[in-house]
Amino acid sequence: MRWSAAFIPTLRDDPADAEAVSHRLLLRAGFVRQLMAGVYALLPLGHRVCQKITSVIREEMDRIGAQEFKLPALHPGEIWKRSGRWETMGPEMFRLRDRRDADLCLGMTHEEIFTTLATELRSYRDLPQIWYQIQTKFRDEPRPKAGLLRVREFTMKDSYSLDQDRAGLDLAFQKHFEAYRRIFLRCGLEPLAVEASSGSMGGSESIEFMQASEAGEDRIASCAACGYAANVEKATSSLPPLEDSAGLPAPERFPTPGVRTIEDLAAGDGGTPAVRQIKTLVYMIDGLPALVLLRGDHTLMEQKLRDGTAARELRPAQPDEIRSLLGASPGSLGAVGVTGVRVLADPALRGRRAMTTGANQDGFHVRGVDLSRDIAVSSWLELREVQAGEACPMCGAPLAVGKAIEIGHIFKLGTKYSETLGASVLDESGHVTPIVMGSYGIGVDRTMAAIVEHSHDEAGIVWPVRVAPYEVVITVLNPKDVNTSEAGAQIYEALRASGVDAILDDRDERPGVKFKDAELVGIPYRVTVGPKGLEHKQVELLRRRDGRKDTLDLHRAAEIVLEAILEERR
Fold it and tell me: Which residues contact 485 (CB under 8 A, 6 or more apart)?
């Protein structure tokens, strides 16, 4: 490709509304353009990068014996209703009706559709299977942001393992785990595998692959000492034991006028420290109220509440619902003496005495509370959000908490979908047994953005060779000079003939413009061909990643560049 004929609309200035580095650079370098909120067009450079990422994905999926499909993005609502996810997916699912008034949706994911195809399997001899596709997905995100990191339309590689038993699922899960690590490493990323919540996907276990980045929306708790890592939606930690006094023989109500928060009650010399308070929240879980109890200095991780209760619908109760239930406003709530309401408590409160909580009367609290004596706890659930510095649950070393981008997620679904949708086979004894499934996803566009977040500098993007839109640019400094133009073209043609993805910058532009564009776009190698160098039969090679420059013999330039690129491809 000649740059003069290519569509590479680079911008001199940063877009005003682009906050994430990847958003800013992909726009400036001419890889993407926004059509509307959360919807982006991939321009030729962006499409080339995504095609190279998908090539890596296909190679690694083929390596574990997967077969590629192409399934519809338009789904009948009936299948999603049968699985139960028509309701649980909520407003993020794009729903529509056809001319016959039948419910349809745009696919957010394809568990239901692949499971339906799996009903054609008859015998255990047909298993195991690994099926995958690279397909457009649609999610009506409430707040699309950060360019390609949170969008409404995106490309995903989703694969599905089909096995006879749990042992087969474990093997398929491990195959995908290893394949994902290879994929991300080959794309120039540093993936961190972390324990994760399975969310609306369901199943017994899931692992997210994360790339550390300040642009990420996920937060990861990790231990440098032993390698423990988990999404804060799943992470746990060890807390130091606390010694409580014997407390009071019964809870004692006392006035607290104007006290509305944990901090208010802790203030002053006679205040009650947050660690000795019980925080009471009211949630509506599948339409019914529940009291959620945490230590006063702890924060609720709502996903843990959702997972622990297997809730289909979950939301904080409204003020009028709270007052109707408990007779008080938030800030004066407690579970002492409450009956007929589900009470869910975090284990950090187990066995605590001499605690203080709201009295369910505005302006009053209760002290001397003994959890085992005074509160009827329905269930003990891990509910609190882990904080940096708390002890690792595996080895006791301090945990770090940082932001990360989710680039892949693998799930052990079990028989959640096969039982519901009737995907079963006959086992060796002739008995009908549901197929045991796994589900595995990689966001292609998001992976491209994650690479940019991970690999850039002040001048622009720094692509790894394997996924770069072009591996080398031959920059002709004076294309009007016949000798310079011919020398550049010869190197370009020689590299192309050797299988190198090269672009010839033959534009009639100032050298500085060409250099800045090459750096912004992030092409790994630049060969500069100019009249002065040709006087000595020489050209210059610049490596984008480290800025190293070498002077090459004109006649060996293509050979040396090829060797460097082949070394990086390995």
Answer: 476, 478, 479, 506
Q: pLDDT confidence of 247, banded at 50, 70, 90?
A: confident
Largest CA distance in the chain: 99
- Both tokens of residue 426? 């006959």
Tell me whether the omega of the peptide bond preceding residue 319 falls within 30 degrees of 0, making it cis. Answer: no
The pLDDT value recorded for residue 201 is: 53
- Which pLDDT does position 19 carry in this prediction? 84
> Rounded to whole angstroms, what are the CA distances from 210 to 257, 403, 409?
47, 9, 9
Structure tokens of 260?
């509305």
Band of the pLDDT at 178, cuts 50, 70, 90?
very high
State whether residue 388 is helix, strand or coil: coil
pTM recorded for the entire structure: 0.90
Q: Which domains does the chain have, with CATH numbers?
A: 27-235+401-453 (3.30.930.10), 252-380 (3.90.960.10), 463-569 (3.40.50.800)
- Would strands 129-138 and 192-195 be described as parallel, antiparallel, or unpaired? unpaired
**Nearest Cα to 467, choosing from 453, 444, 448?**
448
> Could you tell me the CA-to-CA distances from 314 to 280, 285, 435 in Å, in that order?
16, 5, 30
CB 436 within 8 A of CB 539: no
Percent helix, strand and coil across the chain, each to the nearest 5: 30, 30, 40
- Per the prediction, the chain carries an average pLDDT of 95
User: Which among 500, 516, 476, 514 has a CA at the least distance from the CA of 564?
Assistant: 500
- Tokens 């474990």 locate to 170
How far separated are the first and last CA of the chain, in Å rounded?
A: 24
Give the model's pLDDT for residue 199: 64
Chain center to CA of 101: 35
- Which tokens go with 544? 């984008």
Sheet order of strands, 252-255 included: 252-255, 364-369, 355-358
Token pair recorded at residue 335? 């579970």
Give the angle subtended at the CA of 389 by the CAs of 386 and 394, to the nearest 5°. Answer: 70
pLDDT single digits (tens) 516-559:
999 999 999 999 999 999 999 999 999 999 999 999 999 999 99
pLDDT tens across 525-537, in order?
999 999 999 999 9
SS3 state of residue 467: helix
Helical residues (DSSP H) of 84-165, grouped into ranges: 85-88, 111-118
Q: What's the rounded Cα separation, in Å, for the pair 174 and 457?
A: 35
Distance CA 436, CA 418 (A): 7
